[in-house]
Design goal:
It is a single chain. The protein has 285 residues and is mainly α. 66% of the residues lie in helices and 0% in strands. It has twelve helices and no strands.
């Protein structure tokens, strides 16, 4: 007796011939898996910890306090006249979103090899779940920032000047996520063959933070070093975020456009490398 399955239950997997391949329709079909992975990442992040989700806000608070002590108190570094807490926190939460997406995405193939080798699903779902789960973390930390920001805005004489650039916040987040995702896809493709990148990534991200205007404003930097700092695509994003809320910093449409172009290039290259490696990475990992 011959049984016929409904078309909805038939999945035909074909080899891909194009390196630049992004099947949005197929990703949408696996949206339930994406939601499941986001929930897994979010829950697993602080499972078996005493304070649990409180670490979402404890980490930026501790980092901000250290920056206030070392760079604001000891080094007397300028914050463009802004309260140190709100100045440092604005840079920290933006940088955290980028660095976490980059660091976790860069381990996609190695950390999920056991899963990739057993069942088919669009591999790009894993990095996308990292972007989404860390976006939730960013939103929690943004609430912390808004509490601190509102305190200084309404209960002190701090010269905070929020402005219409706030409407660009979704664009800034999109570029930040894209930069982290694109760079992460590139690195995870490289780490399947060269594990050295696994050890280098954490160290490099820490160094890159100091090449981004998080602990200092760009107004105190001049000459070739300024060009070098602004060549970092995250610099314009951090400055625009700070300008939108505080009214200080350097906002430039050219800088935002440059960061956007860098994001497109990194995403394109990252996707090509990711698609190329996913075909045979299981033999290498």
């Amino acid at each position: 007796m011959k049984h016929h399955l409904p078309e909805d239950f038939i999945l035909e997997i074909r080899p891909r011939h194009k390196l630049f391949h992004l099947n949005v329709k197929e990703i949408w079909q696996y949206k339930d898996l994406l939601v499941l992975l986001v929930r897994r990442d979010f829950v697993a992040m602080y499972k078996q910890t005493i304070l649990g989700p409180m670490w979402f806000i404890i980490q930026p608070i501790i980092t901000t306090a250290l920056f206030m002590l070392v760079f604001g108190g000891i080094a007397k570094m300028s914050t463009d006249g802004m309260p140190q807490a709100v100045f440092y926190l604005a840079g920290i939460i933006s940088w955290n979103y980028f660095s976490e997406v980059l660091a976790i995405t860069s381990e996609t193939f190695i950390q999920n090899a056991y899963l990739f080798g057993k069942v088919y699903f669009p591999r790009i779902i894993i990095p996308l779940s990292v972007v989404c789960s860390n976006f939730i973390t960013f939103c929690v930390q943004l609430l912390l920032f808004l509490v601190v920001f509102c305190y200084f805005l309404f209960f002190t004489d701090a010269p905070l000047l929020p402005n219409s650039t706030l409407f660009l916040l979704p664009v800034l987040l999109l570029i930040t996520a894209g930069l982290g995702l694109g760079l992460g896809l590139l690195i995870t493709a490289l780490t399947t063959k060269y594990r050295d990148f696994t050890y280098l990534i954490g160290f490099t991200v820490q160094l890159a933070m100091y090449a981004t205007p998080i602990i200092y404003p760009t107004s105190i930097i001049e000459g070739k070093i300024r060009l070098l700092i602004m060549a970092n695509p995250m610099s314009s994003i951090i400055e625009a975020f700070r300008y939108a809320f505080l009214g200080v910093g350097e906002f430039s449409w050219g800088g935002i456009f440059y960061s956007f172009c860098c994001m497109l290039v990194l995403l394109g290259l990252g996707l090509i490398m990711f698609n190329r490696v996913e075909k045979n990475f299981i033999d290498t990992v």
